[in-house]
Design goal:
Layout: H1 6-18, E1 22-23, H2 24-34, H3 39-43, H4 53-67, E2 71-72, E3 78-81, H5 83-90, H6 98-104, H7 106-120, H8 123-137
Antiparallel strand pairs: 1-3, 2-3
Helix pairs in contact: 1-2, 1-4, 2-4, 6-7
């Protein structure tokens, strides 16, 4: 079985977060077991060779769940389902992906339009845009 994309990890991570506060690494391990991933698949690295694919995708799934208001971070390295996340789970969704979240979460919808535009900016433009903020903080 191939390692699922981050959208396929959203539902298992939200279910784990609904059971109580959980550490990211623990949730990643349990989600991998639930999905039936082999130890080799869990250890597979990104092309950069610096991070595991499953770890990377679990963090992206958690990021989008947070943007949608479905999980919160009570302390560093841990997350827990919010009331909105528990309410979504009560409907027994077959899966969670970005399309329904974008439609029902204006905050995520707006941020999804902004982030790719920032990423595409040339480095020197991003650097100039950050300079006034850096000078103000000194």
């Amino acid at each position: 079985m191939a390692i699922p994309d981050y959208q396929a990890l959203m539902l298992p991570l939200l279910k784990l977060a609904a059971s109580g506060q959980i550490r990211v690494l623990e949730a990643e391990k349990k989600a991998g077991e639930e999905l039936g991933l082999t130890p080799e698949e869990r250890a597979q690295l990104l092309p950069s060779g610096k991070q595991r694919v499953l770890h990377n995708r679990a963090h992206w799934a958690k990021f989008y769940l947070m943007k949608a208001g479905l999980v919160s971070f009570p302390s560093r390295g841990t997350f827990v389902a919010t009331d909105a996340g528990r309410a979504l789970l009560a409907t027994n969704p077959p899966k969670i992906d970005l399309d329904p979240i974008r439609k029902n979460t204006p905050r995520l919808s707006n941020s999804m339009r902004v982030v790719p535009a920032i990423i595409r900016l040339p480095h020197r433009v991003r650097h100039r845009a950050c300079q006034p903020q850096l000078q103000k903080s000194r």
